[in-house]
Amino acid sequence: MKKIIILSILLSSLLSLQAQRYEMTFQLPGVQDSILYLGQHYRDHFITLDSAVRVKEDTYRFVGKRKFETGMYALYNKDAKKALFEFTIDGSQRFTIRTNEATQVPDPKTHISGSPANQAMHAYINRFNQARKELRDLEAQKKSSDLKVKEKAEKDIELLNNEMAEYETSSLKENRQYRFFQLLDMFKGPEVPENVSDKAVYYRTHFWDGVDFSDHSLVYTPDLFNKMNLYFFGVLYHADFDTICRYADMVLQKIENDTLMLRYFMDYIMPRYYRSTKNIGWDATWCYLVRHYYLAGKCPWAPQSEITNKRQTCEFLEKSLIGARGAELYMADTNQSPNPQDWISSHRFPTRFVILWFWDPDCHHCQTQTPELKHLYDSLSNAGNKLFEVYAVGYDADIQKWKKYVRDYQLNWVNVGGTNVNIDYQEAYNVHGTPTMIILNEERRIIMNKVLPTKSIVPFLTRYIENTDKLKK
User: Fold this and answer.
1) Same domain, 334 and 468
2) Do 344 and 245 belong to one domain?
3) What's the domain count of the chain?
């Protein structure tokens, strides 16, 4: 009878263990949250998969029946702004991790049991963190006025770099069965050969080499998000519109038939290109992506209402993009004549360039930048080098206050304003606030649609003249 009871207990325990598929315990000294969450990265936020209350001081235990996919995971609190701790689930789902202190960066004193994958990952990260510290110290020594100290630091830096390169190679080889090292290898980035003449072009072109876009689990890693963010808003940040679009196509065309991957990219990059008010060419990039992806039927997740809205917005923005012909305005000057024959054209000036300056005397930035622009305008005029005319539109201003400001500050350029105008200039030039600057060339095409600092206007126009004159030869 006793044997039957014992057997029954053992069988019950075995079934209980089988039902309880994971048990992950984290001891995080210094963490005071009553609840922590376990989840995965998805772009710049987390997808929550489980939660655990604090079972005792600094200890949290996640227990359940599900089977987690192999991959990278994170612990975070209710703020969910950044991970408190990063780890991997790879093989074992029953392990314990005890940190020296609550930090995203592993500490050498972090203790891990039950998970060889985490042990290997954290050993690797710890070694590189230590190497970075050593490198900082050596870089400081390299600045020494003592020649011997400087020379020794340079040699030690070379030795350290070689040592870490060998360590990385051997680590990737010895631990290639673990997901962390597979991701590390996939996302390590291109090595630019020394004999390449244009290293920037090579780097952009080969940036995505090695990334397996058919692996959808990548969308739940910080690696894909970080690489995407670096590519579009780092590597391509200062590139012109044509370059951004060319290299954006290079990666997006790889995934345009993969709805999940394409949406992962488009839902993140599109709002950032659209909302940018400072970056030259980003509005044109947004329009390009709308026309070549959304309006081309490559974004099936987007509802028709969104497609319609993007089309209308694109058509509106395209009127004021660089390269578009600027709409000709006819507006009344400070005399505010209702007769259209008295209105002044924005296009009919002898100068090669025209700066459309939409401003308001109550606008704080306008009060700072308008006098600066006047100083530049007067300086060039007095020197006999009037590069541009200023067509200053009193945007949505109190007429009397606007006219008084013009008189008081002796704004001797072309001043127009009020409601006596031939078209809606807000729609024609996408003017949503002040100050707004539009620069037109000799053909009265838009060559700049962002507010330039006054000190940058002449250098910009000089470069434009040099580049266009070269093309004409």
Assistant:
1) yes
2) no
3) 4
Last residue of one domain, picked from the residues 64, 82, 113:
113
Find out whether 1 and 74 touch, Cβ atoms under 8 Å. Answer: no
Residue 240 lies in a domain: yes
pLDDT of residue 19: 52
Mark whether 379 and 335 lie in a shared domain: yes
Residue where one domain finishes, among candidates 94, 113, 132:
113
**What span, in angstroms and rounded, lies between the C-alpha atoms of 297 and 284?**
19
> Is pLDDT above 50 for 249?
yes
User: Helical H runs in 256-320?
Assistant: 259-275, 282-289, 304-317
Do 432 and 389 have their domain in common?
A: yes
Q: Which residues of 346-361 are buried (b: 16+ CB within 10 A; e: fewer)?
A: beebeebbbbbbbbbb
On the question of pLDDT at 375 being above 80, the answer is: yes
Bond prior to 435 in cis (omega within 30° of 0): yes
HSE-CB at 197 with a 13 A cutoff on CA atoms is: 0
Residues 168 and 236 in one domain: no
Tell me the per-residue pLDDT of 106-159, one tens digit each, with 9 for 90 and over: 677 789 999 999 999 999 999 999 999 999 999 999 999 999 999 999 999 999
pLDDT band at 81 (very low <50, low <70, confident <90, very high): confident
Instruction: Provide the whole-model pTM.
Output: 0.84
Does the pLDDT at position 56 exceed 80?
yes
Which string of DSSP letters, residue by residue, matches 150-219?
HHHHHHHHHHHHHHHHHHHHHHHHHTTTSHHHHHHHHTS-PPPPTT-S-HHHHHHHTTTTT--TT-GGGG
Domain shared by 418 and 361, yes or no: yes
Residue-averaged pLDDT of the chain: 91
Q: Containing domain of residue 131, as a range?
A: 123-184
Instruction: For residue 3, tell me if it sits in a domain.
Output: no
Q: What does the alpha-carbon distance between residue 373 and residue 173 come to, in Å, rounded to a whole number?
A: 61
Terminal CA-CA length for the chain: 105
Residue 114 backbone zone (phi > 0: left; psi -120 to 50: alpha; other: beta): left
Task: Determine the pLDDT at residue 1.
Answer: 52
Q: Kindly state whether residue 2 falls inside one of the protein's structural domains.
A: no
Could you tell me the pLDDT band of residue 14, with boundaries at 50, 70 and 90?
very low
Residue 276, pLDDT score:
77
346 and 249 both lie in a single domain: no
Are 335 and 421 in a shared domain?
yes
Between 147-174 and 179-186, two packed helices, what is the crossing angle to 10 degrees?
Answer: 120
